[in-house]
Specification:
- By secondary structure, the protein is an alpha/beta fold.
- It folds into two domains: about 80 residues, no CATH class; about 140 residues, Rossmann fold.
- Helices cover about 50% and strands about 10% of the residues.
- The longest helix is centred in the C-terminal third of the chain and has 23 residues.
- The protein is elongated and about 70 Å long.
């Protein structure tokens, strides 16, 4: 219901229903609010404004000459479709896998932790499994890959990954995930005592505000991505899964 497109559509339907049963003033008000919301999403930079603070929070780091490992968080593949089709199905967060493969080539001695279970929707196949297939096809040696296939959300990525790898304090581990997801992910890894190096990828916005493209569905998807992360930060802080409301660079 909090997804902007769903919320505005519910307002529109509620307005139409109210109008139909005789509450015309209330119904008309809801319809106007819904229409105004769709218009604002389509023709203003509001989607970018909601996402930019998240994506700009962590700059791309200058990595040292040696890193111990790379952590790739799940979210770049659809395990259900991958299982049904018999081949990895990459979604719009596929830059996570591409950048991980590039880092693996740049740091040939680094281990690679693939963290991702079935998610909150049971499919019978983890996110880590098809991701492993992709990296193998790109030439990454199988002995470098560590699979963590139990986690269903970001805090479990951190908890189960840390328990599996048992990183030493002086080791450098690079965390790869979408730029907008990075603040919440960093907060979770810091909460479990793993001081990783954030390596944001999968940007959905330019560094500044550009003219809207007026494709309503794409702009609503952009807002939904941002709203999910802002709600996630608030919920994780309330649940004690992160120690700061908006984790940032140290």
């Amino acid at each position: 219901m909090a997804a902007p497109g769903n919320f505005l559509l519910l307002l529109l339907l509620a307005g139409a229903l109210a109008f139909a049963i005789g509450a015309r003033r209330s119904g008309a008000a809801l319809i106007v609010i819904s229409a105004a919301g769709f218009l604002v999403a389509a023709v203003t930079p509001l989607p970018e404004w909601s996402l930019l603070p998240l994506e700009n929070r962590f700059p791309r780091p200058a990595l040292s000459s040696h890193i111990e490992g790379i952590i790739l968080l799940g979210g770049a593949v659809d395990p259900g479709i991958s299982k049904a089709r018999g081949q990895p199905a990459i979604n719009d967060a596929g830059a996570r896998v591409i950048e991980t493969a590039a880092l693996a080539r740049r740091f040939p001695d680094a281990r690679i932790l693939l963290s991702g279970g079935e998610g909150l929707r049971a499919t019978g196949w983890s996110e880590a499994a098809p991701t492993r297939q992709i990296l193998l096809s790109l030439g990454v040696a199988p002995e470098r890959l560590i699979l963590e296939e139990r986690s269903r959300d970001t805090i479990e990525n951190a908890e189960y990954g840390s328990a599996l790898v048992r990183p030493e304090p002086d080791q450098v581990w690079v965390l790869v995930t979408s730029a907008a997801h990075m603040p919440r992910a960093v907060g979770c890894f810091r909460h479990v005592g793993w001081d990783i190096v954030p390596y944001p990828v999968d940007y959905r916005t330019a560094p500044g505000i550009e003219a809207p493209d007026y494709y309503l569905s794409q702009r609503l998807a952009l807002m939904e991505f941002a709203v999910k992360e802002w709600i996630g930060l608030g919920a994780y802080r309330l649940l004690g899964r992160i120690d700061d409301l908006f984790p940032g660079p140290r």
